[in-house]
Amino acid sequence: MISASTLADGPLLGLPLPELWFALLFAIFGTFLFLDGFDFGAGAIFATLEDETAREAVLSAIGPFWDGNEVWLVVFGGALFASFPAVYADLFSRHYLLMFAILGALILRGLAPEMYEQRHDEGWQRWWGRSFVAGSVLAPFLLGAFAGNWLVGADRSLTLVGFVVGVTVVLLTVVSGAAFLRLKAGEYLPDAVTAYGVRAVVGYLGAVVVTLALLAVRLPDGIDTLLSPAVVALVVASIGLAAGYAVAMRRGAHLAALAASGGLTYGLVAVVAVVMYPLIDPAVGATVEGSIVSTLPLNLMSIGAAILLPLVVTYFVVLYSAFRGPVEPGEAY
């Protein structure tokens, strides 16, 4: 029987809870980056479309999903605060201007399509269409900059590593966005969307190479860290997934392409986690073991997560099942 005293004695079931929570944090962040990533990518591709039917198809494709997908960012922030509160405080206080910029970009991305549909005169839709594109590009760029700065322990929001990782994440969202749009609204979109996805995946691989080169110079023992078996395996797997994505897109296997883009997303996040561990805040040398909350709240949170996370996943399964299939003709945002 589980009691307060047993919960305070040691880790639940003898599990390595600090490491599990560290992995869970990055899994949650990867889930957000993938699910909201194809929404961001759709917004970036929106900028290339001139036909109003195609633009409406893009908005209809992401309409049922984008606000739900952002739940994972809230879950990430809550999980970080609950499990590593000192890291949450230090990390967000160092980059508070960047965090406000991220929130502003997310607000703009969410508000713009709503306003776009309110009026149909040319000037109004041009303004809000551009705002939608701006929010869709800025949000992943700034999130990538945040992740890059976190990884190298930067105490400034504007860094070369942050810029390069930001560009890498933007390209990755275009990769997943192109696959998602071809899957959901391919009938209404030009064939060029496929080319955008293929070009973006090539650009993504190039950006990853530049990122790894910067990390080799910037991180202590950078070359040894990047040549570890786990990192090498993830990089090789990413190359294979990128090739598979390009083939799938050209053959019209858009669901397979979307799955490949998901693998690329989780692979990128896994590289960050592997390179960072056993630290969780490199700027101050904070380790996973030293920064986790005490045993009792950690055990209680673990029980709560084991109950709540399956419910959240079930919600998303229901959501995506309810809106599966391509968008219908005349379907509005």
UniProtKB/TrEMBL annotation:
Principal localisation: membrane
Any one Pfam family match given in the protein's UniProt record, by short name: Cyt_bd_oxida_II
Membrane topology: Multi-pass membrane protein
GO cellular component, one term: cytochrome complex
GO biological process: aerobic electron transport chain
Compartment(s) where it occurs, according to its Swiss-Prot or TrEMBL record: Cell membrane
The keyword Transmembrane is assigned to this record: yes
Keyword flag Metal-binding: no
Source organism superkingdom: Archaea
MF terms in GO: electron transfer activity; oxidoreductase activity, acting on diphenols and related substances as donors, oxygen as acceptor
Keywords, sorted A to Z: Cell membrane, Membrane, Transmembrane, Transmembrane helix
Ranges annotated as spanning the membrane: 20-49, 95-112, 132-152, 158-181, 193-215, 227-248, 255-280, 300-323
Name by which UniProt lists this protein: Cytochrome bd-I ubiquinol oxidase subunit 2 apoprotein
